[in-house]
Design a protein that fits this description.
The chain is mostly beta strands. The protein has one helix and twelve strands, in the order H-E-E-E-E-E-E-E-E-E-E-E-E. Strands 1-2-3-4-5-6-7-8-9-10-11-12 form a twelve-stranded antiparallel β-barrel. The longest helix is centred in the first third of the chain and has 19 residues. The N terminus is likely disordered.
Length: about 290
Amino acid sequence: MRMPIRAKTLRTAIVCLSALLPGSMHAEGIDTEHLFGFMIGTDIGNVGEREFQSETTGRFGKSGGSYRAIGQELELEFVPTKDVRIQVGSTFASHDINGVPGFEDRRQLAWQGVSLDVRYRFLDRATAPLGVTLKVESHADRIDEMTAARVRNFGTEFALAFDRELVPNIVVAAFNLSYQPEWTRFVATGTAEQDATIGAAFGMMVRMRPDFLLGGEARYLRRYEGIGLEALSGQALFVGPTAYFQLTDRSRLTASWNAQVWGRPAGVNTSLDLVNFERHQARLIFGVNF
C-alpha cells in the first residue's frame, strides 16, 4: 500500500514543479542583461539589437526633515559588434527637500544631464564557467543628484560584473565591484570638491515562471573624500528584493527596492549613514526592443 502512495505523491510533486518551469528549460538559459535593478549582469544582447529603456530611480529619507529625489533617465541601447554594447541617455531630476540638516529647501524639476555607457564582455557563460563584463559609464550633470543645487559635475563609474547560472535556466547569481570618482563645482559658490564611491554587490534571481524571476540584491558602499580614497566619509549596506517580468517577446520590466539596514558616517557612532546615503532606494526599469 505504501509504495503506490509514495509513487503517486512523487508524480504529483514532479507535475507541480514542471508547471513552474519553462518548457524549454535547457534551451537558452537566463539573460542577465536587464535582470537586476541596482546591479548589472554580464549579458549584453545580440549583434544588431536595439532597445529603448526608461529607468526611474527614487531615493527617500535623510537624517531629518523630508527628502525625496527622483531621477528619470531615457536611454537608447545598441550592440554594434560581438561582445560590445553602447548606451546613451538623458536624465531629468525631481527633488522635494524640506527641513533636512545641511540642505537648502528645494522643490524643483529640471533637466539633469547626459550619460554614455560602454560595456565589453570578456567571458560568455555559454563558453566559460562564468560571465565577466566590464562597464564604463561617464556622465555630465548640471544638477547635483543629492542636493539639487546647480553644478558642473563630471563622473565615471567603472564596474566589473561576474555571473553564473547555479541551476541552469532556474537560478543565477551575480557579483559586482565598482569604483566611481566624481568632480563637482557648485555654480552659486564656486567651490569645488572631489569624491569617490566604491562598492561590492551580490544578487541572486530564481525563475518562478517562464516570464517571471524573483530574487534580491545586497550592496555595500563606501564613500570617500577625494578620488584617490583619501578620507572615508561614510559607509552603508543596502538590501532588498528584485522582480523581473518578461511582458512580451520585446518588452520587459524590472522592479527593485533597497533599504539601508546598516551604515555609519565617519566619526559618528550611529546605526545608519543618512548623511552620505538615503534610507530607501527604489528603481523601476522598462525596456522594449525595436
